[in-house]
Design a protein that fits this description.
The structure holds two protein chains of two kinds. Chain A is mostly beta strands. Chain A contains no helices and eleven strands. Chain A is about 0% helix and about 60% strand. In chain A, the strands form two sheets. In chain A, strands 2, 4, 5, 9, 10 and 11 form a six-stranded mixed sheet that branches. Chain B is globular, with a radius of gyration of 13 Å. The N and C termini of chain B lie far apart (about 35 Å). The chains are: A mainly beta, B mainly beta.
């Protein structure tokens, strides 16, 4: 089983739609969780951290379910500019440092 | 604030040749990461430095890959000899502190094609 798994997609959704991605992780001791966004042929950039109580940033909502070991990202009112690959990132404590693991990413295409 | 700098941006080499990539992290960032991203996949961590020391190189193919960060600032990643499967984007990232999951800032990457 991969440490961090994501549905690669692509998710093709119309403008204005709501779309949700899930990401599962295998290490129950994982400590920190993030969503990064990567545009085509660009570097990844932090979209948002994921907190235990869930958090929201504008149209984006991130949630963590430790019992089931997954995190989710919800995008409301999708814009064309949201088209990108969304990478799930999980960190765990390993020998005094944070081991960082990226998922394979979920590709989102927002259609006019 | 200047971002993470990488060079070259593109490199084409033949298999069995050698290649080196350079990275200059954001000033003051103690932690530096090298990732390999193959088309259609997420970034895979190759090596992580804390200042000039290695904290994780478990996924670095040490028979052909090497990396150094001699003065705790910029870093080089070398492949010798290259194989076809090394074709990928090599991303460098930096963050403030290895103990806390601070945001990682990525450079633009070096796109390597091995023919």
């Amino acid at each position: 089983r991969k440490e961090v798994e994501q549905d690669p997609g692509p998710f093709n959704v119309p403008e204005g739609a709501t779309v949700a991605f899930n990401c599962t992780y295998s290490n129950s001791a994982s400590q920190s969780f993030f969503w990064y966004r990567q545009d085509c042929r660009k570097e990844p950039k932090l979209l948002m951290s994921v907190y235990s109580s869930g958090n929201e940033d504008g149209r984006f909502t991130a949630q963590l379910n430790r019992a089931s070991q997954y995190i989710s990202l919800l995008i409301r009112d999708s814009k064309l500019s949201d088209s990108a690959t969304y990478l799930c990132v999980v960190t765990s404590n390993s020998g005094g440092y944070q081991k960082v693991t990226f998922g394979t990413g979920t590709k989102l295409q927002v259609i006019p | 604030e200047a971002g993470v700098a990488q060079s070259p941006r593109y490199k084409i080499i033949e298999k069995r040749q050698s290649v080196a990539f350079w990275c200059n992290p954001i000033s003051g960032h103690a932690t530096l990461y090298w990732y390999q991203q193959i088309l259609g996949q997420g970034p895979k961590l190759l090596i992580q430095f804390q200042n000039n020391g290695v904290v994780d190189d478990s996924q670095l193919p040490k028979d052909r890959f090497s990396a150094e960060r001699l003065k705790g600032v910029d870093s080089t990643l070398k492949i010798q000899p290259a194989k076809l499967e090394d074709s990928a984007v090599y991303l460098c990232a930096s963050s403030l502190d290895r103990r806390l999951p601070y945001e990682q800032y990525f450079g633009p990457g070096t796109r390597l094609t091995v023919t």
